[in-house]
Write a structure and sequence with these properties.
56% of the residues lie in helices and 12% in strands. With 757 residues, the chain is an alpha+beta fold. It has a six-stranded antiparallel sheet, with helices on both faces.
Amino acid sequence: MHEKLPNATFAARQVELAVNNLDSLSTLDCVASQYLPRIIQSHFQPSVLTDIIESDPALAVQFLSLISRRGISIPDGRFSLANLLDKLTVNELRNTILSIKVTPTSDRNNGEGEYKNKKGLFIHSLAVACCAKDIAELAIPQMDSQLAYCAGLLHDIGKLAIEETMPKSFTLITEQAESSKQCSRAVEQEHLNIDHTVIGKRLAQKWQMPNLIVLAIWLHHNQTVTICKDMPEARIAAVVQLADSLARQSDIGLSGSYDIPKPAQPIADILNISSEQLQLIHHNLKAAVERKIKLLGLNLPKPQTEYSKAIQTVAAQFANRDAELSDENRLLQSASSHLDFIKDFILNVSPNNSAINIAENLATQWQKFYQTGKVCLYLAPSVSSQILEVVVVENLSQRETFYVNAPVDTSAIPKVLMNQFMILNAHEYIDWLFEQLNIDFDINRTKLVPLLSGSKTIGIIAFELNYPSDLKLFEEKFKISASIAGSIIGMALEQRKEQHFAEHFAELFSVTPEAVQTLPEETQSIPESKEISSVDSLDALAEMAAGAAHELNNPLAVISGRAQLLAEDEGDKEKKQILEQIKKNANEASEIIEDLMSFAEPPQPKPTPTRIPQMIEEAIQLAGRKTDIEKIDIQVEVDDDTETVLIDSAQIVSAIANIISNAVESYKTDIEPIKISAENEETADSVKLTITDSGCGMDAVTLKKAIQPFFSAKEAGRKRGMGLAYAARLIQINKGSLSITSHPDEGTTVNIYLPSK
């Protein structure tokens, strides 16, 4: 008498629930004892586990599912689990293998019997896999043998799932099938209202197995000879069915079925395999399976003992790694304190600090944190100067700033430190400096470190190293600190250059009293109506703008990047907020530089004949989008004989749209009509375009600066003031010109002259 199985309806519900909840299959402890020692190797690579994963149904399922979830594609006709595993990272592979459940020998109530069932299923799956691979290679047309092998290995995952979730029921089903000489599928249907092929298909779909493997799992007990005629892709199911028949005839492992296997030859015929070839496959099968059994440790006499040893080895190895991580953590804590130095230095930097002020702060922090003796820091002289700015910190309460002469016969920055980081002995390179300072440095202990801004050395820091053993310990930290500080000081130096550029900008648009005296008398008075023309100095202004932008771009990128790195590691919320503010301001400055570059170096125009009405209409539409006004009230009048201009249409449309937008914004309340007219010039090959508004107008001072970059009559923080500057620049490079006439409270007229030939 067999133990009674649960009633079919209840069992079917249980199986349905189990299929939905089963996330993976478990492997055997003997298999785990083989792969665990491999994953703790110091140079662990996926290839050391490939042969085991390809031979264990539970491992193969887990990794195929992971590969699918990762979106790794499987090439048609070239299935290779080994190649797919190579696309996973070492950590992914190790973590996945450690997450797989293991069934110890005596883990279950029935102990040895159920363990033998699972082990028998594994061996049967190996036999079907080896057989399917050989069949696929001989089939005509030939099939993907590696895919067939994997399909054979996984063909009974439905049985493994029943054994996993209902081990007692699986044992009873197997016993009944054996006593009645039935196929296990028939007994499963009788008691569970479902069989392992359907369960296997659902699990394979849930775990995102390749479609052909799903077909093989589902159909390998069906009439594959008939199915293949209408469904060629089902040939893989025929291969697995034939392999299953040969494996059962060889009595290898536990299939769970005890009926007479289906005749092999009809299936072989549709695959174009001869009886002689079948006999050869059958003859070689046992040896192939034995090799796999040895690989997986399925023949170990005491698998649980081997598994326990493997667990102990892994635990010991992880304990060692934990100790190594603790050491690394101590190093990280040391690095964290080093970050405190960097943060303290950065947080003491103000946007208004000069380069020498920042250098003084650095020298003081350097001495304090690294516990050095005297510190001397000097900045590289400018090209036109032989004067050096020098900071000396003798102790925390005594620091001075000096100006000294740069050496005449050598470079102030040692050539070996021009563009790379090194630590040098100071007395070999800067005796000329110590002679001028008249401060006693211990030359045997004084070291030199370059301050690098990008790849350029902008200064040198010399310091007495009190503890020689610190040199190796702090060498990397010296490099990081000097690079960050050098970038910030470099930005301050570039800011100083920017101020010089700004002064030159102002000179271009300023008329000094002396200059006014040299003008004819009739031009010295300022009439009530003011007019400003597109000035010849736009090219000079653009050249200076390009120079300023190029000089500032790199330092700002460094500041933004360094601030971001520090903010990511900062735990203090207030300091993190300050660092993020530095990054934000640096990004805003970069955006301003982009505007400056757009003004200085716009794309070269590509002139084409352009119809004037079309050009004006496109400019009006663009201005509407800029001002968020759906329909601007504009009156357009174009002379009949005024047809085309020779311009870059996109650039001039953008320029006119900026002028229209300014006109719209000149109205304080209701927007009155804006007038646009176009007419041919009588004495030149050009067209005059006039844009007139009756808005607030401009006074003499405002009109004089109207086309300067970044000038705006609006209150601070409203806009960057690039609209008219862009317009004038774009018109200029298109061989046109622009003039503006304006009266306060009476409106503004802009005349644009564009070439017609």
